[in-house]
Design goal:
Blueprint (H helix, E strand, L loop, with lengths): L3 E6 L5 H10 L4 E5 L10 E6 L25 E4 L1 H8 L4 E18 L14 E12 L4 E7 L6 E4 L4 E4 L11 H12 L8 H16 L3 E6 L3 H14 L3 E7 L7 H11 L4 E5 L1 H8 L5 H21 L4 E5 L4 H8 L6 H8 L11 E3 L7 H10 L4 H4 L19 H20 L8 E15 L2 E14 L7 E2 L4 H14 L3 E6 L13
Parallel strand pairs: 1-2, 1-3, 3-4, 4-9, 10-11, 10-13, 11-12, 13-14, 16-18
Antiparallel strand pairs: 5-6, 5-7, 7-8, 8-9, 15-16, 16-17
Helix pairs in contact: 4-5, 4-11, 5-11, 7-8, 13-14
The chain binds xanthosine-5'-monophosphate.
Xanthosine-5'-monophosphate (XMP) binds next to loops.
Length: 510
């Protein structure tokens, strides 16, 4: 990959945001932990040091070896990075007397060879640190101050080394993106040529080289990540990509057939496997949410393994892993990767897990996956789909699962989701669905008294599913949807709308 930027992570909560901002400039970057420099360090054109929850004066604080970087490549040190350079190169870092959190404004700026170009005095920056740089390191010149922080930015003379105490990556630093642009494009002279199209071209070429004539197996879920991964691989190796799409009987109404047709229409070599009966049989009588998840996970592996074994000489398993999962597993704080590996070495694994793994999206964020999918002509409707849990409707039917309950919930869910689409609300909602409650209530229909099921509707706003709030859907829409559900779905006589936020509630009910 050309024009790479290396972000060395010291464990800051904002490190991923730095990567996002750099990529928004159409520049490719990778995050690596500070204590494990990449083998291909020479390929990186510039380096950014992240912030950190540590104090440079602490015993356990990260102490990176920068001997191959400093003075040899353009270097931007953010927050902890700036303090680290100061502390170990002749400056002084000490606890600050005043709180240095939140908004501040630049009260002094010296241009510093274009570092602050286009940024004016008074520009708002975001501070988040408890130590402060009392004196600059040897050979440094001051570039900026704020009201409370004198040494807010500096440059080391005769080096392309810049350091800032504030966080350019957070939205509240209003000129943060301009500053990154000045450093990466102006000073480090990096070409902003990383776009979805260039990603597709490079990745397809790399996949061709790596996979040759090998056969690859991929499990499609109907979701964005596995679909985009499949289309990329298909571009590279055509029908040597064998996709498997399993119907666990817990998908949305008509989902299996319509998504399968859509995949076939895209030219993918896909096999639809209807294992509904097998899943429902295995789930019979199970009411515990985690019990249901375990059963579905186990049966999926069995079904997938049977199918993958029918593909002779398959060498690879493709997965739609995306960058946030990877960052988590290699993070400074230690992700789960080590345990997963030791587990996998124990043996007794399903056959498909013994295949080599290829993950073409593992360096992309979710919105980048969508843009890459768009640039390859994937239907925007498919790319804009709400997230849907792997165990599907099983965790939206509270209590035990029967095929009758699945059918009822599929009908209710379809009315709700189609209604959102028809009323222009679908794209305003992050995730929506219906829940079948283990509750029966009394109603009247015509002259008759009924005693039937109750469903809850849930629609939430969120960015990542970690926190969420219920959506204020228009009353007229809720009224229309409720009428339609009660009139059309036999067995349901009551509809409620869930107005709980996460936390303390979760998005799913199980
Ligand atoms: P909660 O209910 O934890 O959900 O607020 C957060 C997000 O995760 C999805 N979810 C799951 N996805 N397997 C999945 O693949 C699961 O077991 C599962 N449980 C919850 C949920 O739909 C929401 O998007």
């Amino acid at each position: 990959m050309q024009n790479n930027v290396l972000i060395l992570d010291f464990g800051s909560q904002y490190t991923q945001l730095i990567a996002r901002r750099v990529r928004e400039l159409n520049i490719y970057c990778e995050i690596h932990p500070y204590n494990k420099l990449p083998d291909n360090l020479s390929d990186f054109k510039a380096v950014i040091l992240s912030g950190s929850p540590f104090s440079v004066r602490g015993e356990d604080a990260p102490h990176p070896d920068l001997s191959e970087i400093r003075g040899k490549k353009p270097l931007l040190a953010v927050c902890y990075g700036a303090q680290y350079l100061a502390h170990f190169s002749g400056g002084e870092v000490a606890p600050s007397n005043t709180r240095e959190y939140g908004r501040a404004n630049l009260s002094f700026i010296k241009d510093g060879e274009g570092f602050f170009e286009g940024i004016s005095l008074g520009s708002q920056v975001w501070m988040s640190h408890s130590d402060t740089i009392k004196s600059l390191p040897t050979g440094a010149v001051l570039l900026a101050s704020t009201g409370d922080v004198e040494n807010a930015a500096y440059k080391i003379e005769n080096e392309e080394t810049y350091a800032i105490q504030f966080h350019p990556e957070v939205y509240h630093s209003t000129d943060g993106k301009q500053l990154l642009d000045n450093f990466l494009i102006g000073i480090a002279k990096i070409q902003p040529d990383w776009t979805p199209n260039s990603f597709v071209d490079t990745t397809v070429a790399e996949l061709k080289e790596k996979l040759g004539k090998d056969k690859v197996v991929l499990g499609l879920s109907g979701g964005v990540d596995s679909t985009v991964a499949a289309v990329l691989l298909h571009k590279a190796i055509g029908s040597n990509l064998h996709c498997i799409f399993v119907n666990n009987g817990l998908l949305r109404k008509n989902e299996f057939t319509s998504v399968l047709q859509q995949y076939e229409g895209m030219g993918l070599n896909v096999k639809g496997v209807d294992a509904s009966a097998r899943f429902l049989e295995a789930l019979a009588g199970e009411s515990d949410p985690e019990g249901k998840r375990k059963i579905i996970g186990r049966v999926f592996i069995e079904v997938f393994d049977d199918e993958a074994n029918q593909i002779e000489d398959a060498k690879w398993l493709a997965q739609g892993t995306i960058y946030p999962d990877v960052i988590e597993s290699v993070s400074v704080n230690g992700g789960p990767s080590a345990t997963i590996k030791s587990h996998h070495n124990v043996g007794g694994l399903p056959d498909f897990m013994k295949l080599k793994v290829v993950e073409p999206l593992k360096m992309l964020f979710k919105d980048e996956v969508r843009r890459v999918g768009g640039s390859m002509g994937i239907d925007p409707e498919l790319l804009g789909r709400h997230p849907f849990p792997g165990p599907g409707l099983a965790i939206r039917i509270l209590g035990d699962i029967t095929s009758e309950k699945v059918s009822i919930l599929q009908e209710v869910d379809a009315i709700f989701i189609n209604g959102l689409k028809e009323n222009g609300l679908y794209n305003k909602v992050w995730q929506a669905g219906a829940i079948l409650l283990p509750v029966q209530s009394v109603g009247v229909m015509g002259d008759e008294r009924t005693y039937e099921k109750c469903v809850a509707l849930r629609a939430v706003e969120s960015t990542d599913g970690m926190t969420a709030d219920w959506v204020n859907l228009p009353y007229e829409f809720l009224q229309k949807t409720s009428n339609e559900i009660i009139n059309k779905v036999k067995g349901v006589n009551r509809v409620v709308y869930d107005i709980s936020s996460k936390p303390p509630a979760t998005i799913e009910w199980e």
